[in-house]
Specification:
It is a single chain. With 167 residues, the protein is α/β, with parallel strands linked by helices. The chain contains four helices and five strands. The protein has helices at 31-39, 61-65, 108-117, 143-166; strands spanning 16-21, 48-54, 69-75, 85-88, 123-129.
Length: 167
Amino acid sequence: MTVESEIGGGMPPPKILVLGVGNLLLKDDGVGVHLINALRDTPFPDNVQLIDAGTVSHQLISLFHETDYLILIDAVDANDVPGSIFRFSPDDIDFQPERKLSLHQMNLIDILQMAEMTGAKPEAVIIGVQPKDASSWSLELSDEVQAVVPKVKDLVIKEIEKICRLQ
């Protein structure tokens, strides 16, 4: 991959965080984590960080303060065909806040909103995959979701290349 050679001039390269989200124990819900593992063999420049965020935590907020661009990979239930791929910004969706009783009840959008309240708002894109089964206990992805892992991997690489070209 030629991402590093595309970063030009005297500007420091943007800090890019690729975050894989999901519960690895719940079949397709773990697609974000599986994608991070699939990306680990790709040689990225030092300004790109891959993190398996698991089921998300408020502890990620400090990372968002150090990040210029955020690429989130997660299962997204859009009532579509299993394996469908979506690309959108958190700003594209109107999320209604829910009352939380504990920090353990926070989801990805809650964490992004908390980060923004603390002054951290990196440019963000979400790459979502429609799960077939996100409730069965299994470490394996369904065939439909497994089949799109290479395509999602390529989309993430292209996002990183696009970010680096903007600089």
